[in-house]
Design brief:
Layout (H helix, E strand, L loop, with lengths): L23 H18 L10 H19 L8 H4 L4 H28 L6 H13 L4 H18 L8 H26 L6 H28 L5 E10 L2 E8 L12 E6 L9 E4 L10 E6 L3 H5 L8 E8 L26 E6 L3 H13 L6 E9 L6 H10 L2 E9 L10 E3 L4 H7 L8 E5 L2 H13 L7 E3 L6
Length: 477
């Protein structure tokens, strides 16, 4: 399956010996310009807004609208935006920007009400009633209420008992509707937005948002047929964890790097919003196909047990920088195909299903002729959830692998008995994985958010530079 054929979609540029993809500082600067430019444009109409509160209300409103439209681009499905900052940072930025734009939108409404009536409680209440009930402001009020609902549901997603597909559909549909209502409000009501230059700005930014949605949810699903896959293996490999291996079924082969992830559609029609993100648990050097380890958590992942061998599958990707060549020692982009430096230790830390991309990295390291010293700290709540016990034990004999398995309950498989300790990974286990060289060790961390935060904190306390810690979350709070 390892092939030189490039199966990447247009616009999905990977790091390859000096990427043309922009770095985080450039992206943040461009974001700031696009958000602040419409706000700065309101200065020319400052007198019309009726005082400082009115002008600030207009400025925060157009800034919030620009941030909303840019959310469609920071969804994590564009490699040219995520390659260098990393998918983890991109998705976290998407979350924080959503909360920030809700605050800007709230400030816009509050300041607009404050400037519309006398500076008294009764004056503000009267102005609020007028604004909220007026048909003139109807689309703006609807966009504001919808936006608040989206942010609240996004923050409390884990507590909402909706199917993942339903949540995705409501989140996307609500965001598109809020953006359309917000654009109408800005162009119909906004003083500055009606001017030709700013109106053109909204047209271009709105078209970019629409193009992003169309590309991800309409064009990409149609393009998937050029890269069909089939299920070559489907088996339970641990308690609640299923292994699915995909192989090419004709068309273009998949080009990926160990540690990356993909949006996967298995045994279902190629329709939008039904794909799910999973880490790839294999290396192209191993020649064993695209391997996924999937934990049963909901309807989709539970139903995978019934998918037969030979069923059709498609992927969008790969994505992610959780790779041996994904970053240099300072956290910047690395060169594709670059091998780890000889003698520089690599420390891998996995919690639960976070072992999936770690196993891909181990496959890659095992295939190298000149292998660096490697350590793996693997923690699970119950020994029945351990994956690849025999293979991990065998790798510890084939390569310079220092293996530590931490289990809270249950008895480990015989092959890992000599590598197992009781409890969660502690400071001693983490320090031992660094092999006495915390300043040089390259550390990879994947698992539940609380585990990742705890390990990263202890690594920094032990002297590992922050730029030497590579991580990608598969859950967000």
């Amino acid at each position: 399956m390892n092939t030189a054929r490039d199966s990447r979609a247009p616009g999905d540029r990977r790091i390859a010996g000096g990427s043309r993809a922009p770095g985080a500082p450039v992206l943040l600067a461009a974001y700031a310009v696009l958000v602040l430019a419409p706000a700065a444009a309101t200065v020319v109409d400052r007198d019309i807004f009726g005082g400082l509160a009115g002008w600030l209300g207009g400025a925060t409103g157009v800034a919030a609208l620009a941030m909303l439209l840019l959310q469609f681009l920071s969804s994590g499905r564009f490699g040219w935006l995520t390659d260098r900052p990393g998918i983890d940072r991109t998705m976290r930025f998407h979350q924080l920007a959503g909360r920030a734009l809700a605050l800007f939108a709230t400030a816009h409404v509050a300041l607009a009400i404050a400037s519309a009536g006398p500076a008294t409680l009764m004056g503000w209440l009267g102005a609020a009633a007028m604004v909220l009930s007026s048909s003139f402001f109807a689309t703006g009020v609807a966009a504001f209420m919808l936006l608040l609902a989206l942010v609240v549901l996004g923050v409390r997603r884990k507590r909402v008992s909706w199917r993942y597909e339903r949540w995705r559909a409501s989140h996307l549909g609500g965001a598109v509707l809020a953006a359309a209502l917000g654009l109408h409000h800005a162009l119909a009501v906004g003083v500055t937005s009606s001017r030709p230059l700013l109106a053109a700005f909204w047209t271009v930014l709105g078209a970019a948002a629409l193009a992003a949605v169309s590309w991800v949810h309409l064009v990409k699903p149609l393009r998937m047929k050029r890269r069909p896959l089939r299920v070559a293996r489907n088996a339970q490999v641990a308690e609640g964890i299923r292994e699915i291996v995909l192989e090419p079924a004709g068309g273009k082969a998949v080009d990926w790097r160990a540690g990356q992830f993909a949006w996967v559609l298995i045994g279902q029609p190629r329709v939008p919003l039904l794909d799910h993100p999973f880490s790839i648990a294999s290396s192209p050097r191993a020649g064993s196909g695209l391997r996924f380890l999937i934990k049963a958590r909901g309807d989709f992942t539970t139903a995978l047990a019934g998918v037969p061998v030979g069923a059709h599958a498609w992927i969008d990707g790969p994505f992610g920088h959780f790779t041996l060549d994904g970053q240099d020692a300072e956290g910047g982009p690395g060169e594709r195909g670059r091998r780890p430096e000889r003698g520089r230790p690599i420390a891998l830390f996995a919690g639960g299903i976070g072992i999936a991309p770690i196993l891909g990295l181990l496959d890659e390291l095992a295939a190298l002729g000149d292998r660096p010293p490697v350590s793996l700290v693997y923690g699970v709540a119950d020994a029945a959830q351990l994956v690849d016990a025999d293979r991990l034990a065998a790798l510890s004999q084939r390569m310079d692998l220092r293996l530590q398995v931490c289990v809270e309950t249950g008895d480990p498989p015989p092959g890992l008995a000599g590598f197992t300790r009781r409890g969660r990974p502690d400071r001693a286990a983490i320090a031992q994985a660094l092999r006495g060289a915390p300043g040089q060790a390259r550390c990879y961390v994947c698992g539940p958010p609380a585990m990742m935060r705890a390990v990263a904190r202890q690594l920094r306390e032990l002297g590992v530079p922050a730029g030497n810690i590579v991580s990608e979350r598969f859950e967000y709070d």
